[in-house]
Amino acid sequence: MKDHWKDYQARWHLLEAPLRPNQEVVDAITLAVGGETSNVLLLGVTPELVEAFEHLTAVDKSEEMIGALWQPSKSTQTVREANWLNMNDAFGPYSAVVGDGCINALQSADEIERLMRVLKARLLDGGRFVCRVFERPDEPITDEDLLLSIDSAAHGNFHAFKWQIAMSLAEQSGASVRAVDILASFNRLFPDRDRIAEKTGWSLEVINTIDVYEQSSMSLCFPNRQEFEQHFALGFDEFEWLASGTYDLAERCPIVLAKRAAKH
Asked: What CATH number is attached to the domain comprising 85?
């Protein structure tokens, strides 16, 4: 099996919303963070979010992702190579923690719950955790839905479609899905990529980004709304859901704003 992130960074320029945050997402996240920007922790090295916060520490476990994407514009921005789940007292405390899709990049529900507890410990009293997530719908997505989507005029971009395949599999497997299974499902349903490109207008270069999942060791998690809320409740005193924009699949990509209660 191969390290997913070593190949992923090479395809970063081919990604678009929902896989990458557009300006709508960045604006929504910064608005939700509000004035809590004196000391921000970023989960990952998402360039669009690096640009959004002046006082920022980014944390990513992938040396390749850091090398490819980390481009700080201010001396008050730093990066550390570390696993989010292992952040101890040497990290923080922070006024806010932000991220984009980072919860879905975890391997299991147990890891999500562990991260929630870690983040609460890393936040100052009254601090905020603001993150866009990808949630699978309560109504299962079937193979028939995916096939019909390709034939419709509203199939969206390829990355939104790929996430629907992943969400379909996650419904069958209990939220967690292996990256190799996303690729296998796509190849099974759509063996002729030239035909899909012709029907949808998607370029083969973009369609072929799914091959990053070949022999990947990674799993992804796609909880539904109820499962997400159960996870957040373990780490935070209150949370709310915010819209993230109007791009393809935005209805399945809300932003969570979770708060650590301030002591009185």
From this structure: 3.40.50.150
